[in-house]
Design brief:
alpha+beta; five-stranded antiparallel beta sheet; globular
Length: 151
Amino acid sequence: MSSTESGSTHEGFTAEERAAMKDHAQELKKAARRSSRADKAAEAERDVLAKIAEMQDSDRIMAERVHAVITASAPALAPKLWYGMPAYALDGKVVCFFQSAAKFNARYATLGFSDQAKLDEGTMWAAGFALTEVTADAEARIAALVKQAVS
């Protein structure tokens, strides 16, 4: 029985999800063409800064602050694009990322952490944080989280 016969409708990925997958495929192709490790790192950071510059005002302002806090607080994390989002990786594996509100037509931007982040706290802990503004308090919390994530 097909999904339409059973009354449910499954339409697959949203346009935003398909765009994110296309972004990721382009990121992988671009990374494969780069030569030296230093060239790759410099180009990856330029890509992140260019993606941030393309964001709408409020998302861009938050992403700029998040980028500054992460790169200052956890210099071991390397900026890179991940599914079209600014992300920060350790040994090539994404630890955290910034998702603009506009990326998936969401109500708020998100600072997310992958399973590579060492944020373990008992049997349950947060792996994503909604951002509506990056205040001094939020910057301090982000700095503490990324330091913990790579410790």
